[in-house]
């Protein structure tokens, strides 16, 4: 599927969203309609195809290097970034107060999918810039906001998120980076951080490192963590931020992942001392939605590649006739159809979650705003994890369709698979997303997010649940939820997340099945029907795993005794 075709499907999905009319009403200044949406998303597709995609192949081959203490990016990166900034793409959902366009998150996610389709490594830079700006505009003092927000929104300065340390990645309470107060009121930051995307580069003259550091006077554990903005440069001089190394990675070679040392670097406190971790949660919506866009982009690119190749590659058929294209073979048709349906569900999830984020941010009615927030909190871990898995599965299936050709670097399928694998790891692993769903969305807060989703999905299911795959999956999900408890949560959270993902994508597939009247709508309806056909048996399997509970680890002691690590 070309970028033009992908744009058409994205616009068709958005126009079919029941929430779209309300989002337009809440953004009257945007003047959004189908024509404008097509123009915006189409322009994003053009930039992705003409500029970002050609850069991606070079960047993957050449990668980034550490040269005299500074990161040297792949050739062509500066030109691609300049085109991205000059096109106004960092501005899409930025607040008008800082010069942004103030468009809905829904529009941003639509464009972001296309940029990530072209190069997820390139897309790794705008996300921390945008999410860091959210934290700064919400918690920083007026002077810091005035200095940084306009430049981050326009993309002339950049930002990173510095959380993880050696032996303290997801185990945030064990962070050791120390912040001590200076006589002038600023802070001195000392410690080591790792896994920092775009930790150093010269695409912009300044980088805001958002650093989580310990302020001992505020307490221990997470209570002792505060958030600081540490500029890479102050008055043209380096600010005690040292690049220790660039990680050698499986994929995303065009994105430098750095280990950084902070050697008495000067920083500014953001928000309230001891509330750093809570303040960083402002970024969670944006970060998880961006992973959704990455997954949808890679999954869509993989499905498109497989379909294009299969329509051209000739092999098999009757011996007394010319060979047929391999898309005439039943097994290849099965793979292509499943891959296309999964990719479309990843897109549907990301757009649906983005729509709820817009409603939560703008709804004028308190009850409607609360409802949107609950549905969004249900969708976020599912969107993050399902889209990550969809990217890997679709890339793997594309390689299967291409056969030996897919295993070579002549074709991009192998890069899709390498780039996709990390999506299920960063911004919270699959296990963390699963525990978040079980402990917070189902068992916590009286299960309000879970029940909000159930009510919404059941309202859109067919009147006869027994004959409707969606109704059956919702029944399986509700039964599984009734058997959850905190003791077994770490064991069965992942299969429960898979079951929840199938039921949630089933709800979105049911929406698609009701479309008709245009080639795009007919295409989406067919894929929606096929996804329901695939999802129901898989939902039964995942529900059976959840029901096994502690039996899923019953043999671990025997394995450990027989083959100790």
TrEMBL record:
Residue ranges of domain Acyl-CoA oxidase/dehydrogenase middle in the record: 161-263
Show where the Acyl-CoA dehydrogenase/oxidase C-terminal domain sits.
Answer: 274-440
Top-level taxon of the source organism: Bacteria
Transmembrane portions of the chain: none
Q: Which UniProt keywords apply?
A: FAD, Flavoprotein, Oxidoreductase
User: Residues in domain Acyl-CoA dehydrogenase/oxidase N-terminal?
Assistant: 44-155
Under which name does UniProt file this protein?
A: Acyl-CoA dehydrogenase family protein
Organism in which the protein naturally occurs: Novosphingobium pituita
């Amino acid at each position: 599927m070309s970028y033009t075709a992908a744009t058409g499907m994205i616009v068709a999905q958005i126009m079919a969203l029941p929430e779209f009319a309300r989002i337009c009403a809440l953004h009257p200044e945007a003047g959004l309609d189908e024509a404008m949406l097509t123009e915006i998303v189409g322009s994003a597709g053009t930039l992705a195809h003409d500029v970002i995609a050609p850069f991606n192949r070079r960047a993957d081959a050449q990668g980034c290097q550490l040269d005299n203490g500074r990161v040297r990016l792949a050739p062509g990166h500066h030109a691609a970034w300049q085109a991205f900034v000059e096109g106004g793409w960092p501005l899409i959902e930025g607040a008008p107060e800082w010069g942004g366009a103030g468009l809905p998150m829904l529009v941003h996610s639509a464009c972001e999918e296309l940029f990530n389709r072209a190069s997820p490594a390139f897309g790794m830079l705008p996300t921390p810039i945008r999410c860091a700006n959210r934290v700064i505009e919400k918690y920083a003092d007026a002077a810091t906001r005035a200095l940084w927000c306009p430049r981050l929104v326009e993309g002339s300065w950049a930002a990173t998120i510095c959380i993880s340390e050696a032996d303290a990645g997801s185990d945030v309470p064990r962070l050791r980076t120390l912040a001590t107060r200076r006589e002038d009121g600023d802070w001195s930051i000392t410690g080591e951080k790792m896994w920092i995307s775009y930790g150093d580069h010269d695409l912009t003259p300044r980088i805001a490192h958002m650093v989580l550091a310990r302020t001992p006077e505020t307490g221990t554990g997470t209570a002792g963590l505060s958030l600081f903005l540490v500029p890479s440069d102050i008055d043209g001089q380096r600010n005690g931020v040292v690049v220790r190394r660039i990680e050698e990675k499986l994929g995303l070679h065009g994105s430098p992942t750095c280990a950084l040392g902070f050697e008495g670097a000067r920083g500014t406190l953001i928000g309230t001392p001891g509330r750093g971790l809570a303040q960083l949660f402002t970024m969670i919506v944006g970060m998880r939605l961006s992973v959704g866009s990455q997954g949808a982009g890679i999954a869509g690119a993989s499905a498109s590649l497989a379909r294009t190749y299969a329509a051209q590659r000739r092999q098999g058929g009757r011996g007394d006739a010319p060979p047929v294209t391999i898309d005439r073979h039943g097994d290849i048709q099965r793979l292509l159809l499943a891959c296309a349906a999964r990719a479309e569900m990843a897109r549907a999830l990301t757009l649906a979650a983005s729509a709820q984020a817009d409603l939560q941010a703008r709804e004028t009615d308190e009850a409607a705003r609360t409802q949107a927030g609950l549905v969004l909190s249900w969708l976020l871990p599912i969107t993050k994890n399902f889209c990550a898995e969809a990217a890997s599965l679709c890339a793997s299936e594309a390689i299967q369709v291409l056969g030996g050709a897919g295993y070579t670097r002549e074709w991009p399928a192998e890069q899709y698979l390498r780039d996709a694998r990390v999506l299920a790891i960063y911004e919270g692993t699959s296990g963390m997303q699963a525990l978040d769903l079980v402990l917070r969305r189902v068992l916590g807060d009286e299960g309000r997010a879970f029940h909000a989703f159930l009510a919404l999905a059941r309202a859109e299911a067919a009147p006869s649940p027994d004959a409707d795959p969606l109704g059956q999956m919702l029944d399986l999900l509700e039964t599984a939820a009734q058997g959850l408890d905190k003791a077994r949560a770490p064991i069965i959270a992942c299969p429960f997340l898979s079951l929840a993902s199938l039921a949630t994508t089933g709800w979105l597939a049911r929406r698609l099945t009701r479309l008709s009247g245009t080639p795009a709508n007919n295409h989406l309806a067919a894929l929606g029907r096929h996804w329901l056909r695939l999802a129901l048996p898989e939902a039964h399997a995942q529900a059976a795993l959840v029901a096994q509970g502690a039996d899923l680890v019953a043999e671990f002691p025997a394995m450990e005794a027989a083959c100790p690590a």
